[in-house]
Amino acid sequence: MSKGIPKNGINKSWFKKGTPSPYKKNYPDGFGINSRLYRCWAGMKSRCSNKKSYCYFNYGGRGISVCNEWVSFDSFRLWALANGYKDNLTLDRVDNDNGYSPENCRWIPKGEQSRNRRNVKFYTFNGVTETLGGFSRVLGVKRSTLEMRIFSYGWSPTKALSTPIKN
Predict the structure, then answer these.
(1) Is the pTM of this model over 0.70?
(2) pLDDT at 110
(3) How many CB atoms lie within 10 A of CB 56?
(4) 19, 11 Cβ separation under 8 angstroms
(5) What is the DSSP string of 59-96?
(6) What does the pLDDT profile of the chain (167 residues) look like in tens digits?
(7) Residue of 18, 34, 36 lying closest to 26 (CA atoms)
(8) Which of 14, 44, 72, 126 is buried most, with the most CB atoms less than 10 Å from its CB?
(9) CA angle 146-148-149, nearest 5°?
(10) Closest Cα to residue 66, out of 86, 85, 91, 30?
(11) Which residues have CB under 8 Å from 17's CB, separation 6+?
C-alpha cells in the first residue's frame, strides 16, 4: 500500500462532521470501500490534504485541492460512473494547475495520462504538436535518436525530426 493511505484506505480525518462513514455503506454496484474506484478517491484526497503523504508537495503543497462536491465518496462515485469510469482507466486532471473537480477531470488510459504532466515537453513540427515519444512512433525513429539529436548534438527540433536516418 502506498504511503499516506492507511491500509484500510480510510482516514477518518478526511470526512467532514456529519458525513456518513463509508464503513457502513454497501453499494449494490460493487463500488464500495474495497474497490479500485474507492482507492482512486482516497488517493486523490490524500495527495491533496494529507501533509504526510509522500506526494503531497506535488498536489496539496502547490494548491491542488478536491472540490467540496467530491469530499463525499457518494458524489465522486456517481460522477465517475456517469463519466466513463472503468478499472483500466485513470483519473486525469485536464489542467494540471487546477484541482480535482467534475469540470477538470476525466477518465483516460494510463499511457495517455503520462503525457499530461508538468515535465512533458511538446514540440511542433509540420503543424503537428506532439511529444518526442509520439513523433518517434509516427516517424519510425527511435526516441533515443531524437533525444540525442536535440539534447546532445544541439540540433533544433525541426532538424532532428526532419533528418532521415542513415542506413
Answers:
(1) no
(2) 80
(3) 18
(4) no
(5) TGGGT--B-GGGGSHHHHHHHHHHTT--TTEEEEESST
(6) 445 445 545 555 545 555 555 544 556 566 667 789 999 999 999 999 999 988 899 899 999 999 999 999 999 999 999 999 998 999 999 888 899 999 999 998 887 766 666 667 888 888 988 888 888 888 999 989 998 999 999 999 999 999 988 86
(7) 34
(8) 44
(9) 65
(10) 91
(11) none
Q: Which three cell numbers stand for residue 38?
A: 474507492
Residue with cell 535518436: 145
Residue type, position 62, single letter: R
